[in-house]
Amino acid sequence: IRTIGVLTSGGDAPGMNAAIRAVVRTALGKGVKVRGIRKGYKGLLNEEIIDLDAGDVSDIIQRGGTILQTARCKEMITEEGQQKAAAICKKYGIDGLVVIGGDGSFRGAQKLAYLGVNTIGVPGTIDLDIDCTEYTIGFDTAVNTAMEAIDKVRDTSTSHSRCSIIEVMGRDAGYLALWCGIANGAERILLPEEEGYDIEDIIDDIKESKKRGKKNYIIINAEGVGDSVNLAKTIEERTGMETRATILGHMQRGGSPTCKDRVYASIMGSMAVDLLLEGKTNRIVGYRHGEYVDFDIEEALGMQKGIPAYQYEISKKLSL
Ligand code: F6P
Questions:
Q1: Each residue of 235-265: pLDDT tens digit?
Q2: pLDDT > 90: what percent of the chain?
Q3: Residue among 16, 42, 73, 126 whose CB has most ligand 1 atoms within 8 A, to mutate
Q4: What DSSP line would sit under 267-301, residue for residue?
Q5: CB under 8 Å to 97, separation ≥6 — which residues?
Q6: ipTM of this model?
Q7: Rounded (10°) angle between helices 259-277 and 139-159
Q8: What's the CA gap between 24 and 4, in Å, rounded?
Q9: Is 152 annotated as a binding residue?
Q10: Do residues 249 and 209 lie in contact, with contact meaning Cβ atoms separated by under 8 Å?
Q11: Which atom of ligand 1 approaches the CA of 176 most closely?
């Protein structure tokens, strides 16, 4: 491998910069040239390719977002797009590519691997919804950001004796909601992995908790369940308790990465380069059972993780 390309793809996540820095510095340390590809696969197809040296990645480990910028790219789903992307890699001498992103980005990486570009995926998403790994870059920061925001909503919710519904991101996955629910001591957590929720049960519980003298009622609602504003209206009408919905939105994706995100992202970025230099391709770096591991992309995409049922049960027990 003479030249390694690096790109970030899909939604950005805090810690991506730490991974980029690790890719660049590990590769340079081994005498390998690095090219940064801007705006994910979209930038690759538009040939937005720059050389990166050690200085280009200084002073970025603490920054949120991604210095390379990112994008979602429909063209990369097509065979034509994939062929074009592989040809551009070849044109720029990129014989190894590190793709930092989520499942969709890894599918693109897999296609490129089949077309002769050595690729390694690094899991980057605040959603934690990559099945082969217990850690994804950005989740730790996002969950801490959301937790702090929810603490603030709780303060005002208590002052006004309100029910507060706080909607957190996560697309179709409920990891952010589950973790916030436990960390913020929520009365309810609504997860997309559950088949709907029982509104009658929620209403009865709110009435009961009012009788027991609870000063507020916090519901963490996952984005995949959604409809927080209507749920708030229903609850207010049916319980008489003032109810407000807060949708945290994209603030969860920003901010300086936590120590965990900086360290794990650094190790994974560095490992991706080591794997390429060992001659490996078509693999994803992951973290499982306390160790950094790597999987074949096909195998990784076929794995299933799911919300740990025991953790969800515990969250319910603690919300009395
Ligand atoms: O995948 C990360 C994520 O933030 C999801 O939680 C959310 O559903 C989605 O991206 C939002 O995407 P966009 O930034 O395109 O609105």
A1: 999 999 999 999 999 999 999 999 999 999 9
A2: 99
A3: 126
A4: HHHHHHHHHHHTT--SEEEEEETTEEEEEEHHHHH
A5: 4, 5, 6, 7, 89, 109, 112, 117, 118, 119, 120
A6: 0.98
A7: 160
A8: 9
A9: no
A10: no
A11: 6
CA distance 73 to 85: 12
Q: Dump pLDDT digits (tens) for 83-106.
A: 999 999 999 999 999 999 999 999
Distance between CA atoms of residues 248 and 221, nearest Å? 11
Residue type, 295: F
What distance in Å separates the CA atoms of residue 263 and residue 170, rounded to the nearest whole number? Answer: 23
Task: Report the distance separating Cα 155 and Cα 174, nearest Å.
Answer: 24
**74 has a pLDDT exceeding 90:** yes
Tokens of 138: 């950005």
The first and second tokens of residue 253, run together, are 């994706």
To the query of whether residue 261 is one of the catalytic residues in this protein, the response is no
8 Å CB contact between 81 and 53: no
Instruction: State pLDDT tens for residues 259-315.
Output: 999 999 999 999 999 999 999 999 999 999 999 999 999 999 999 999 999 999 999
